[in-house]
Write a structure and sequence with these properties.
Blueprint (H helix, E strand, L loop, with lengths): L1 H5 L4 H8 L3 H15 L7 H7 L6
């Protein structure tokens, strides 16, 4: 899911591709932000790159 967010996919498209509801995607995104210690969606990708969770 993190890679799909980084690719700029919409929540609706991610949910459809993974076979889950949009609510699940929102929940996981919130958990990712908490894990990374960030507060905005825009901070997720830089923090994930910095922590080695994504590669460029």
């Amino acid at each position: 899911m993190l890679a799909r967010l980084a690719a700029g996919e919409s929540v609706k498209d991610i949910a459809r591709a993974l076979g889950v509801t949009r609510r699940v995607v929102y929940h996981v995104r919130t958990r990712i932000k908490k894990y990374l210690g960030v507060t905005t969606n825009e901070q997720i990708i830089p923090a994930a790159l910095e922590n080695g969770l994504l590669t460029e």
